[in-house]
Specification:
Elements lengths: L23 E4 L5 H23 L10 H20 L8 E5 L4 E7 L5 E8 L5 E4 L3 E5 L5 E6 L3 H11 L4 E3 L1
Parallel strand pairs: 5-8
Antiparallel strand pairs: 1-2, 2-3, 3-4, 5-6, 6-7
Helix pairs in contact: 1-2
């Protein structure tokens, strides 16, 4: 039985394991899911309120109240649709660990939405790293905290440990 080798880095760096050669991207994404659900629920409430204002039995349909009702229902409708269609553009940076160049880059999106490098450090210039269950702390050579990054899973943690273990002191 023939086995296909899918490791493209093996030919370029035969002494490097595949787990150590996979680039790692860590994002600083906040928990927007709860906020988005709340905004959409309030948006649905406003849209239902805009239409139910006209359907409630016994509502006053006098000439003096009709324009106010129209303005209020249009405002509720516009706010409701806005809350349903809102998209959050997050300007938080991303940390990209490059195993080929052996460096970490912090990328932040500019006003056009394109990522720009705001910090570039080689693995050799890092002083150490401390891994916990859900985050990694990178330290400078003088021992000061350089950055604290969230880890999404154990796979990301092991891939990052594999990359950094050759050049960076891993603290327990």
């Amino acid at each position: 039985m023939a086995v296909m080798n899918t490791n493209t880095f093996e030919h370029a760096a035969p002494n490097t394991a595949f787990e150590k050669s996979v680039p790692v991207l860590i994002t600083f994404a906040p928990n927007w899911r709860a906020r988005m659900i709340l905004m959409r629920a309030v948006g649905v409430f406003f849209i239902i309120s805009a239409f139910s204002m006209w359907l409630i039995p016994g509502s006053v349909m006098s000439a003096e109240v009709w324009p106010l009702k129209l303005v209020a229902s249009l405002a509720f409708l516009i706010v409701g649709v806005s809350l349903l269609t809102i998209e959050v553009m997050d300007a938080r940076p991303d940390a990209y660990f490059d195993p080929i160049r052996r460096e970490v880059r912090i990328l932040q999106k500019n006003e056009n939405g394109r990522p720009q490098t705001v910090l570039r450090r080689s693995y050799d210039s890092l002083g150490g790293a401390r891994f916990t269950d859900d985050q990694v702390e990178l330290f400078d050579v003088d021992g000061s905290l350089l950055m604290k990054l969230p880890l999404e899973s154990a796979d990301v943690s092991s891939a990052l440990k594999g990359q950094l273990s050759q050049n960076v002191t891993i603290f327990a």
